[in-house]
Amino acid sequence: MEITAERTLPRNNEELAGNLDTGFLKVLALVFMLIDHMGVLFFPTVQEMRVLGRIAMPLYAWCLVVGNVKTRRPLMYCLRLLLIAVVSQPLYMMALNHEWNYFSILFLLCIATVAIQGIRWGKYLSQIWVPALCYLLLGFIHVDYGWKGLTFILLLYLARNNKAGLFAAFFGFCLFWGTSSGGVTQFFGLEFSFLKWPGIGDLLRAVCKLQSLAVLALPLILIPTHTRLRLPKWLGYAIYPLHLVLLIVLRVLLKGATWEALTAYFR
User: Fold this and answer.
1) Residues whose CB is less than 8 angstroms from the CB of residue 232 and which lie 6 or more positions away in sequence, other chains included
2) Distance from C-alpha of 84 to C-alpha of 102, rounded to nearest angstrom
3) Which residue of 25, 63, 233, 252 has the smallest Cβ count within 10 Å?
4) Run of H or E including 143
5) Which has the closest alpha carbon to 33: 162, 145, 192?
6) Which residue in 175, 131, 133 sits closest to 153, CA to CA?
7) Which residues of the chain are modeled with pLDDT < 70?
8) What is the dihedral of CA 137, 141, 142, 148, to 10 degrees?
9) pTM for the whole structure
10) Digit-coded pLDDT (tens) for 151-188
11) Is 103 helix (H, G, I), strand (E, B) or coil?
């Protein structure tokens, strides 16, 4: 398979084990991402918003896997992601108070696309050295979710054709992901009393970690939906920067953020 901008590849009819209703999943991912970011900015003590926010990244990751399998122009697919990542970076800094060298998840998705296409190309051992170079790159730049995010996406890609394998890869990595995050013992006032049960409580505590609860996205990925929601291509790419613009407006309206405060990390 040649990765060129000029050549359009044949449509890929590969069967995937997960939900292919990606328009619907992208809208859900946007909603959960917005909840997460609003929690960070406006309700930092409301842990429930961060828990719900854990659902967003896995949905975007699975949509990326589907996109990489189905695209007929992989190079253009990657370049569009890179373009929107570059355009969104100043908005990302203004909305979420990040420095210029802390890159958004869009850069991770772009890097993961390069890794996946290297695996799919399969020439000159590209399935080894292309992902390896992607990991090496992540050692030199600070990207949201970092090498763990890339590993998660690649695991989803490698398990894409088998529902049981997809479940195992997703669930297992979420348990690993949660080892460095804090525990969640309640949800909107409902205490998780089962965490105190002998034996099973120890197991469930491993699941009830903030980052482990990304597993809440698993049913949405495994169970097919048929909403027939189709986003225009431009809107699918514009959703991310548009949500950042909304966050910036809310920072101004609700927290009185000034232009100097919004642009503090540009200086």
Assistant:
1) none
2) 16
3) 233
4) strand 142-143
5) 145
6) 131
7) 1-12
8) 10
9) 0.92
10) 999 999 999 999 999 999 999 999 999 988 999 999 98
11) strand
